Structure formats: structure tokens, C-alpha cells
TrEMBL record:
Domain of life: Bacteria
Origin species: Edaphosphingomonas laterariae
Family designation: Belongs to the UPF0229 family.
Leader sequence residues: none
Region (Disordered): 58-77, 83-108
Name of this chain's protein: UPF0229 protein SAMN06295912_101478
Biased composition regions of type Gly residues, renumbered to the chain: 93-103
Lineage of producing organism: Bacteria, Pseudomonadati, Pseudomonadota, Alphaproteobacteria, Sphingomonadales
Amino acid sequence: MHVIDRRLNPGGKSLVNRQRFLRRARALVQRAVRDSLKDRSIKGIDQEGEVTIVRDGVHEPTLHRSGQGGNREYVLPGNREYVSGDQIDRPQQGGGGGSSAGDGDGEDEFRFMLSREEFLELFLDDLELPDLAKRRLTGGEIEGVRRAGFKTSGSPASLSIPRSMRNAMSRRLALRRPSRAELQRLEDEIALVEARNPPEPGDAALLERLREERDHVVRRRSLISYIDPIDLRYRRYEEVPKPVAQAVMFCLMDVSGSMTEHMKDLAKRFFALLHLFLSRSYRHVDVVFIRHTDRAEEVDEDTFFYSRETGGTLVSSALDKAVEIIRARYRPDDWNIYVAQASDGDNLTQDNPRTIALLQDQILPIVQYAAYLEVGREEDPMAGGTIASDSDLWQAYVTVQAPKGRFVMRKVHHRREIYPVFRELFQRRGVGVRGGAA
């Protein structure tokens, strides 16, 4: 998205100030785009739409006298209403879109209609998969071109002048083409002989010989061209497969009976964001959807987001299924493996040791990054927030030993918390600080 400042340049404001204003306007639009997530459905999360920013956010700061303190006297010409000592009330400011009557002027809020491409550009800015490092040659896919020598034909744009001139010079040397200096030498000698007065004996024979030699040089120069079509060389390019980073993201979602509709909505929104981010930003990323109750199964995208199946809870079944799929299809030496898990934290107590063992011993050693999102009940506005103890699964995951930054945990209770947490988990390195378990 590009913001264009079409205002005039009053007061000779510098380009730096105008660029600062454009960056601030873009940041406000980007914030409005991200705030719109809580009002969108899962299906419409990536659709175009209108966003609004407040007008105060794009006002440029100015220096002026403080309105507080000090004694001031004003002369108001044509005053028929006030006398010395009267206090004048501050004018009432109106606002665009207000419902109350009264005097005063105001301005409407800024509204932006964004296309789908602009919306996604702002929405997914500064996000990336962490530690995307493992690369391999994909099966025959052409990723780019490289220089591969020269060829004797091609387009004028690919003509290599240095190589063509070198070939021409080599050909002229091999064929002993007379140089311009040699021709000039003969011309000078002929002119010198012709200028003798009186002529010396033998000048006529010498002059005839020099003229024959000059004609021979001119003929050879015309027969052996300075540059010939056979000298031309064109740069040659060939398409080659480049090593590309391959990644697979495992999406593990708890759909057991303990997950309320609100919790499932939070989990689905998180995974919808994740799927949108991966499909938009990367070409070589597989997404594996795994739903689990007391048993886990790999499903397609539609089933993952819209199936209403429910049941008991066994978290280890999802991790078992992920390990099984990795061994069958995704070799850890070639693939960057990521795991994202969402659950309400409810699990059988006797299953927690096996869950920790699977995560710590089999999954974390081979993945680039793993994230656990615990969804909770919606906050009660009257209570000022939800105060709840950590779940059994959360307490179990806290004990997991993992390299710094390899495994992170976060909690969400409301729609408005989804994007900030998602961005914290997948923001580009150097943009922000990613912490460990929360």
C-alpha cells in the first residue's frame, strides 16, 4: 500500500517532515487493519474492506504559545458585546458523524477502502517463520537463471561487446590485417618522395613500389574487416534449479468436549491466520491439519475448520500422529518443521508424562520452532478480567527443557488478543523480542 500526500507544501516544510507524516499515516492504517480482525468471520479474514483511522492521528505537530498561564490583553475591533473583565467561553467544537445538535465545525474520520492485496500486505507485514534454514533442490522446479558462457546468436540486448571485440582483434592479428598506422606510414613516405625537388635518381622506381605497397595494404584492409559477424558473441543463460527452503507446519487443534464454542473459535482464528500467513508468504510450505479428541487424525482444511466432531481428550494422540507423519513424509534433514498446538489445557493427568516425553524427546529435537496456544474462557467485563490457575497441560509444558526460543507458550481469552499473540510468535527477527514461556 502506498500513501500519497497530495497537499500543497505550505511554509516550505522539509521532505523529511512529509515522509514522517506518510509513515505515520501508513502505521495508522496498518493498526486499523489489524484491529479489524476481531470483527471479521473466519471465512472473511482475508477479504477486502474499509478501515477507519481517527483524524487526530494524522495532524502534524506545531509549536504555539501555551493557552495556560500568563496575562494577555486582546483588542477586539468592532466589539459590541463584551467589556473589560468579561470571560469568553471557549468555542464549542463539533465532530463529523455526531448525533448532537449545536454550533461548531468538524471533520469526518479518514476512511480507506483497501483491496485484498493491500489488506494482506499490511496485515502480514514483518512476519516470518523462525530459523528457516534447511535447503534442498526441489524436484525439477526452475527457480532462476545463471550465466552459462557465450553463444554465436541471440538478441542485441544480450550482445557481449568485450568478448566480440576480443574475437575481432584475434582474427585481425591471425590474418595479418594491416593497421591504420602502417597505411599512414606509407602515405607519409609517398608524400616525402613526391616533395623532393629536384628528384633524386631512383625516386620514380621507389615511388612506384610504395604506391603498389599502399594499394596492397588498402586492399587487404578492405578484405579483412575490422569486425565480422563471426566475431559476435552473445551472453548465454540457462535455467537452473536453486536450493529452496522447504517447510512443513503441523497444526494441532483440540476439539474435545471441554472446548467450548468460544474456545474453538479462538483456536480456529489463530490457525486461520497461520494458514493465511503461510500460503501468502511462502511457496514451499506444506500445512498438515491434525484434529484430536481422545484420538487424532489428519484431516483436510475444510474438515479442520468446520467439522463439529467432539469427544474425550488425549493430547498425546496428536503428538503421536505428528511424529508418525514426520517419519513417513518429512525427513528432518531436508525439511524445516514447525508445530503449532491449540488447546484449552484440559488433559488426562496420566497422559501428561507421555505428552511431555513425546514433545521433549521426539518433536523438539527435530523441529525449528514449536508454539503452544492455550485458549481460555472469555473474560468477564464485570469482574475486570479472568483470574484462573494454570491448567494441568500448561504446568506440564512449563517443565519441558528446550533450547531458548525453540518452544514458546501463550494464552488468549478474547478475539482481540489473537493477532497480537500471533504476531509475537511469528514476527521477523530484529523487529521485536520473542520471549520464552509465559
